[in-house]
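Lab notes, practical 5.
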Amino acid sequence: REISSRDAYEAYRQRYDMEHFFRFGKSKLLLDDSQTCELEHEESWWELGCLAYTQLWLAAPLAEKIPRPWEKNKQQFSSSRW
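Output from the prediction step:
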């Protein structure tokens, strides 16, 4: 089956997200430090890493609304908005 230029473009466009995941996963989530001879343990470690990454991704918009200590003029977070 031949790949259309549109399919190739879509696949290449997703490349950045995949590379970001692997770089972040290896450096921050220790996805490359798992050493086990049990395949089930390694699969569980990867599942845990993917869940952690997903939680961080979902929490990013909320974290942007919380002012950092040096941001005095930023509007304070209020739970009544939710």
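Observations recorded by the TA: The chain has a mean pLDDT of 85. Helices lie at 5-13, 15-27, 39-65.
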